[in-house]
Write a structure and sequence with these properties.
Strand order of the largest sheet: 13-20-19-16-15-14-21
Largest sheet: 7 strands, mixed
Number of strands: 35
Number of helices: 17
Strand content: 25-35%
Distance between the termini: 80 Å
Radius of gyration: 31 Å
């Protein structure tokens, strides 16, 4: 007897999740079944009936509300919905970061729903049971982090695509034919995302600026600026306004200021500096104490609130120091001339003047507007020579004038005394728990075309510390002066280090035989200082310096003073660089306002300005870092045939990062390119282990490498592994 074939049961469609998503994306709007069907692009009777059924079920489950007959709203956001920020990985997946959740939530690629890196989003979180990794789905993009991107254009017959070098940008940008502008095939362009239709794989955009051809020096530098939304030049109306400012020194204005023109005054700056925004004055008093003035360019005198110049300076918030150029916060007429404390010129300044004892105790202070006359300009190298030799003749080889010259006895004496006082200030600061981060700065010798000819390292010496200590003193005392009055002010704050990051750092540095003392805050700072001293000059110095800095919280601007952990100061602000930092301009204005007897200003207004300034500082720092990476890749491009000794600075499942010891350039040796064995990643040992030999390639090991590929556009170096340091040349 043959079996009767049973008809397969037709599985009903379930639109519940999609309905919840549609209603969540428009939380305050009611939808009927037809509107939901239209959103889902469904108009057949069967699907519409299923939507009606699902709406009734969801309402009975209390997930949605029937606000009026046949119309439905999402119920007030449930405990499974959160707002936060997307943190993309380089693998087209992301993590959702939210202050209300204990751990970050994984977002698979297909649940991103058009969210991009750092977007503010609403996410539905599921798998919240113990033992399961929480996952989520983006329900709504609330606010885009950015809509302008830099990439290379690929022009087809009827349309184009722009692909970016940013590993966290997981999609190309579609450009319709009529929105290509002046771009040609292969150009580096700046594009603006205009729309991202629901069912489109890529966002739609338009070309707003052509930056040039990939790999060309100016193109790549402008691309770095454009990537972070930073300007490369001033609008013509701002330049015109700046040129019309009266920069003359008037007797009527001098009469309103403390006249310091007869007091010995000089500047110490980098030899290639063009803007000198601080000067020191020195006078020995009859009682044996010293009057030392920290004089800062009076930018706020020229930069009037409410003008287009001030608006531009606020938007920029900071000068950007790229590897081959400075993008200034203020036009040159102010930054390099009117507000630059050049030698043998009278200048308006805002000053902090202190009476200081032989033991570096501050016994008197005064803040206010002054006029000064700088007697001398020194480079750090010249001041260092005076400190080291006590000689009054600057030799030709370090002279900024190009020939040897004699310095007055008064200036030599003042420099030596201020060095003594600065060393006492520094020693006291360290004893109070300050942390000394003298990280090695990578600098390039560039020819007139901006091509790197060599690498050198900038190291802080006594002359740098002299200036640093007196700038710190001014910043601290200004903040203390207003802070103790309990009035709204702009502080530079620095929170305690992140303990999880310190523990992770301890795991790494233990491989080199170092440890951190975690018993209390004071022990942490002391052991970090001891660590910095111990690694100084060793192959692992740069790696450990970098890890230590990354374990620290980021300093930022705020009206809420929590002190500055890294400097061990209860009060700290930025007063000393108004030419290049807008918060310093605001500090000058507020200080003058309070000196004039003004009432406390609105805290919320200034907190908004603090957040903006901190954000712009972060973008500028990223641009500066990218420009150094670019120049490192460019430098290594010209050394492809050379063997380099490097130290393993990172280990991952896909390979090892190697930092070249002689120039600090970092690149990757991919695991597949290490041919002397078959290697696997050992996470516990931070190492790659050879399957046959059992040999390790681990953090801190020294190996020889050669450049395999130098990608200027991606700013990435790939190395070929040659051999370990102890192995003979094959």
């Amino acid at each position: 007897m043959s079996k009767r074939l049973r008809k397969p049961i037709k599985k009903e469609k379930d639109f519940s999740d999609k309905i919840v998503k549609i209603l969540s994306q428009s939380a305050n709007k009611a939808f009927n079944y037809k509107q939901i069907g239209a959103k889902l692009e469904l108009d057949d009777t069967e699907s519409r009936n299923q939507i009606i059924k699902d709406l009734k079920i969801l309402a009975s489950q209390d997930k949605i509300i029937e606000s009026e007959p046949g119309k439905y709203l999402i119920k007030a956001v449930s405990k499974d919905y959160y707002e936060g920020k997307i943190d993309m990985t380089g693998r087209k997946t992301a993590y959702f970061v939210c202050a209300d959740l204990e751990e970050d939530v994984f977002i698979p690629t297909n649940n991103l729903n058009h969210a991009l890196d750092k977007d503010i989003v609403k996410v539905y979180v599921y798998n919240r049971r113990k033992g399961k990794r929480p996952e989520g789905e983006v329900i709504e993009v609330i606010e885009r982090n950015k809509t302008d991107f830099v990439g290379v254009i690929d022009i087809q017959k009827n349309f184009s695509f722009v692909s970016t070098a940013n590993p966290k940008m997981y999609t190309d940008i579609f450009i319709p034919k009529d929105k290509i502008g002046e771009a040609e095939q292969g150009d580096v362009v700046l594009v603006h995302i205009e729309d991202w239709p629901d069912r489109a794989d890529s966002p739609f955009g338009k070309v707003i600026k052509v930056l040039g051809k990939p790999g060309e020096h100016d193109t790549e530098i402008h691309a770095i600026l454009a990537e972070y939304g930073l300007p490369s030049e001033f609008p013509i109306e701002v330049e015109t306004y700046a040129q019309k400012i009266d920069t003359s020194i008037e007797e009527s204005e001098i009469a309103k200021r403390r006249d310091m023109r007869d007091t010995l005054t000089f500047t110490i700056d980098p030899k290639d500096a063009k803007d000198f925004d601080d000067a020191l004055s020195f006078k020995k008093l009859e009682n044996g104490n010293y009057e030392i003035g920290i004089h800062i360019a009076d930018v706020s005198y020229y930069l009037e609130e409410g003008t287009i110049l001030d608006d531009e300076a606020y938007q920029r918030a900071t000068s950007v120091y790229l590897v081959d150029r400075v993008v200034p916060m203020l036009p040159e007429v102010l930054s390099n001339f009117a507000c630059s404390l050049r030698p043998n010129e009278e200048k308006y300044t805002f000053s902090a003047i202190f009476e200081i004892t032989e033991t570096s105790q501050v016994v008197n202070q005064w803040f206010g507007r002054t006029v000064i006359y700088s007697d001398q300009r020194f480079s750090y190298e010249e001041a260092q020579y005076i400190i080291e030799t006590k000689d009054d003749v600057i030799p030709e080889e370090i002279s900024i004038t190009g020939s040897s010259y004699q310095v007055s006895k008064e200036i030599v004496s003042a420099t030596l005394k201020m060095d003594e006082l600065a060393k006492i200030f520094r020693k006291r600061r360290m004893a109070d728990g300050a942390i000394s981060f003298d990280k090695m700065e990578v600098k390039f010798n560039l020819d007139q075309n901006g091509e790197p000819q060599g690498v050198y390292f900038k190291v802080s010496k006594d002359a740098n510390h002299l200036i640093e200590e007196f700038m710190l003193l001014a910043n601290k005392k200004v903040a203390e002066f207003i802070g103790k009055q309990k009035k709204t002010f702009i502080y530079r704050i620095h929170d305690e280090p992140n303990e999880d990051k310190l523990i992770a750092m301890q795991t790494v540095i233990a491989k080199f035989g170092y440890k951190i003392d975690f018993r209390n805050k004071g022990d942490i700072s002391k052991s970090l200082n001891a660590l910095m001293e111990e690694v100084n000059g060793k192959k692992e110095q740069n790696l450990i310096d970098t890890l230590a800095i990354r374990s620290m919280s980021k300093a930022k601007y705020s009206t809420d003073n929590i002190g500055h952990y890294g400097l061990a100061f209860e009060y700290y602000s930025h007063f000393t660089s108004p030419i290049r930092r807008y918060p310093d301009v605001m500090v000058h204005r507020l200080l003058q306002h309070y000196l004039d007897g003004g009432k406390s200003v609105d805290e919320e207004t200034y907190e908004t300005k603090c957040v903006h300034s901190s954000t712009m500082e972060g973008l500028a720092t990223n641009a500066e870092r990218d420009s150094i990476k670019y120049m490192q890749v460019k430098y290594m491009q010209d050394h492809q045939d050379q063997e380099f000794l490097g130290v393993i600075s990172g280990v991952t499942e896909w390979g090892i990062y190697v930092e070249i010891i002689e120039n600090k350039c970092e690149g990757m040796c991919r695991i597949r390119d290490i041919k002397d064995d078959y290697y696997t990643f050992d996470e516990k040992q931070y190492a790659l282990t050879g399957a046959t030999s059992g040999k390790l390639l681990q953090l801190g090991d020294e190996i020889y490498v050669k450049v395999k590929n130098a990608d200027l556009v991606k700013k990435q170096l790939d190395f070929n592994f040659l051999r370990r340091i102890e192995e003979p040349i094959k």
